[in-house]
User: Which sequence fits this backbone?
């Protein structure tokens, strides 16, 4: 039986699926709008049980998944959606020990996913020109205890990339075609380059450039996700669908 321990990330979830995530610490109290919960009452107890606040509100006590962490990312800009992140992680082959660089830190949702997956032996390198965005991303990573796996650089990759022989690179920039020479120098032979772009004209401009560079195995994908109402007697799609969020382009660095 799995039990909650000091230092674990915990999540309280209401019946309407509203969630709150926090770290378990001895002798602390967590305040919600429906009352408070003492950490000591949670530490050492099994996951998956119902707990009550001092006002009698009932919460489901569970460990957060990566999906939960991404949904609760504090943002000041559009984040890469979880439906896209899952495919990005697969295509870039992100796992324990991977060294991955991202350019365009944003609010840190993708950074969080990278940091979660690379483990203690891997490394995430994140470049951005905006200090406010990196400050927010760092706060989001610190909140979920993953900041120690990320190196933040307040720098435009047009000025160059210090890291070499990277396993993967991901670009969330409006004109990624401007930086292909820098990426080629930073990626290891056979390394994977991923990019996200919102419009077809941006994708076309990118493709027309990457065709002339030393990259191969280029493809473009779009991920659509449709949920269903989980009611056995009237199973049907939900009224809203998470449709277009961005075009994903992947390529491999060739040896030259």
Assistant:
């Amino acid at each position: 039986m799995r039990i909650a321990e000091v230092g674990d990330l915990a999540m309280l979830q209401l019946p309407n699926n509203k969630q709150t995530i926090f770290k378990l610490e001895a002798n602390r109290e967590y305040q919600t709008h429906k009352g408070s919960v003492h950490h000591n009452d949670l530490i050492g107890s099994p996951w998956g049980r119902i707990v009550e606040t001092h006002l009698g509100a009932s919460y489901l006590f569970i460990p957060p998944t990566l999906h939960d962490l991404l949904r609760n990312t504090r943002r000041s800009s559009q984040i890469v959606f979880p439906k896209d992140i899952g495919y990005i992680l697969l295509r870039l082959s992100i796992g324990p020990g991977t060294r991955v660089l991202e350019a365009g830190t944003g609010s840190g949702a993708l950074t969080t996913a990278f940091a979660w997956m690379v483990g203690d032996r891997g490394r995430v390198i994140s470049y951005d020109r905006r200090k406010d965005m990196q400050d927010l991303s760092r706060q989001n990573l610190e909140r979920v205890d993953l900041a120690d796996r990320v190196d933040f650089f307040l720098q435009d990759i047009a000025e160059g990339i210090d890291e070499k022989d990277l396993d993967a690179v991901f670009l969330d920039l409006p004109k990624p075609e401007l930086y292909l020479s820098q990426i080629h120098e930073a990626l290891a032979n056979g390394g994977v380059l991923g990019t996200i772009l919102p419009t077809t004209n941006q994708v076309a401009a990118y493709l027309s450039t990457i065709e002339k560079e030393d990259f191969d195995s280029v493809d473009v994908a779009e991920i659509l996700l449709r949920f269903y109402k989980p009611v056995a007697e009237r199973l049907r799609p939900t009224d809203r669908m998470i449709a277009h969020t961005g075009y994903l382009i992947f390529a491999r660095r060739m040896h030259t």
Summary: The first strand starts at residue 9 and ends at 13.
